[in-house]
């Protein structure tokens, strides 16, 4: 007598992820518009202190990244 056939495996059950288990987005894939605006301001600022001149755009970028769980220095 042969061994009974194994029960079929439903691999689809393993695919469902909860919000906590879902893969995180990569930092390069989010806040693209905010990053572009910040970079453009920093690169083309005519000010002697570009960081101070572009602070609002830097803050918007940091805030956007924080919304995705990334902490910037």
TrEMBL record:
Predominant cellular place of this UniProt entry's protein: mitochondrion
SUPFAM superfamilies, per the entry: Cysteine alpha-hairpin motif
Alphabetized InterPro entries for the sequence: Cys_alpha_HP_mot_SF (IPR009069), Cyt_c_oxidase_Cu-chaperone (IPR007745)
Annotated residues for binding of Cu cation: 28-29
UniProt name for this protein: Cytochrome c oxidase copper chaperone protein
Localisation per UniProt entry: Mitochondrion intermembrane space
A single GO BP: mitochondrial respiratory chain complex IV assembly
Domain of life (superkingdom): Eukaryota
Source organism of the structure: Xylona heveae (strain CBS 132557 / TC161)
């Amino acid at each position: 007598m042969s061994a009974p056939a194994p029960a079929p495996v439903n691999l689809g059950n393993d695919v469902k992820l909860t919000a906590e288990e879902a893969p995180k987005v990569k930092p390069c894939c989010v806040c693209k518009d905010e990053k572009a605006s910040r970079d453009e301001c920093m690169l083309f600022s005519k000010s002697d202190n570009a960081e101070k001149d572009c602070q609002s755009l830097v803050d918007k970028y940091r805030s956007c990244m924080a919304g995705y769980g990334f902490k910037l220095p």
